[in-house]
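[job 4417] fold queue: 2 targets
>>> target A
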Amino acid sequence: MDKQIREFLEYIELERGHSQLTIRNYESYLTKFAEFAEGQGIKDVSKIDLELIKKWRLALHRRKLSIKTLNYYMIALRSFLKYLSKTDVESLVPEKIELADTPDREIKFLEEEELKRLLETNTGKNDKELRDRAILEVLFSTGVRVSELVALNRDQINLERGEFSVLGKGGKARVVFLSDSAVEWLDKYLRTRFDQAEPLFVSLKLKVKSEKLKVTQQKGQVIAIEKIPELAKFGETNIAKYNYIEHGIVKVLCADGSKGLPQEAPFDKILASASALNLPKELVEQLKNGGTLVIPISTSIFKITKDKQGKISTEEYPGFVFVPLITENS
């Protein structure tokens, strides 16, 4: 009997596409049945009869199993017998195994006002509430199972179209749709994600670790300027991995940055990573009162600070070498 059980488990995995959880459960149910049958002196599937099934049911019942669990055992056994019949192996006709009647389940649901109160317990005032609100919105707007939700990755979600595809039971894919509210809360949540983890929802421990990746507040923006096209593209590709570009936090420009970017000024902070011959006055002018400019000049790094009254102070840190700052004409 063990040989047929093993072949049956391979069949439901390869041909029927059952999940690993279902396969493990079936293996457990059928292995216990085979051990019971052997204790009754039956090792061949051709000897399985209603009398053996009756004794097996009684043994399970005396273990104080619920009707629902007992039926799981019978479903597995019936599926096994169907497989034997399909492969022309003589055994008990599967239709002769009946399932026990189960009481009707009472369907419980939330009234609209109750659902509203549940959602509004998470107002998004912190990372946890923001994540939990997004989870609830997705669950209630799409009807996905919790197991399907925790298996979602960020790249599966299309916020513009308000939909995504999930892989359900039996490996079957289906498309589900997000409500406007779910899209709004998901977008808010994803704007706080600065990690590289693929899952759509992550633990707060991961989010805490990712805080070190933040370079600006949500309302701020970093503008990176690179004159060499290949380097600009390379930088943009790497920055995109952290969702900075997608969420408008970082913008990469391929241009001459030696004179700054007057159309976007003033700036809180300006950082140059190439060495200038002299301090560009344009960069100082584009610095906001209370801002800081850090720039290599010759073999030193200079920290230029403009206080709230516009007064300039300079600190020099010698002993560094940088690539030269190239201009439009160089």
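>>> target B
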Amino acid sequence: MNKNTTCTLAAIALSASFLNVSAQPMKSNNSWFFGVGANTSTNFLNQDEISGVRTTAHSADVGFNLLVGKQISDRFSLSFEYSNIGQYTKSDIFQSAGAPSIWSSTEKRYLASIIGTYTKPLDTHFSVFANAGVSYVHTKANSIFNDDTVTSTDQNLQPQFGAGLGYRLANFGADLSYTYNLGASNALFSVHGTSFDYLSLNLKWYV
């Protein structure tokens, strides 16, 4: 075997070894992660047929997420997340015997959440996940009732659920997720505030 052939075989073996190592899934037990992302939200508001209140909402603002967490095992993680959901507008139309009264407001939501996540790998890079947690929701509102202006704040705890798709490459990660917060329009939990949901795109760094 000549020198060139030996060098070629050595290079092939080294390349194969490198590819094999690269293809192995990252072991993420006990690792910490930090992340930042963007979100956009919608609001689930229901018509109250008993009191004759019709509610509509619109949200097209973009907010941001900050998060820190710990990967407890390959499948489970626990994280703390702060989210600014951005600004949205809401209108309540109160039907009465006379002309209807209109309450409109511009609101911003800020969330501090503790979330547990279960992840199922699809291959060495992609995964799907589901999570659940609890959020402390702080709402600031500037409202107009007919011609009167009111500024108010509201704080409440809400259960939170979500699911999404994740991608991992070495120490970097990204995920696209859907999150739903249960508010007072749901009889399953004794909570306050309006139900709402949002989509998030987060980038993560594992250490």
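[job 4417] complete. Note on B: The helical segments are 3-23.
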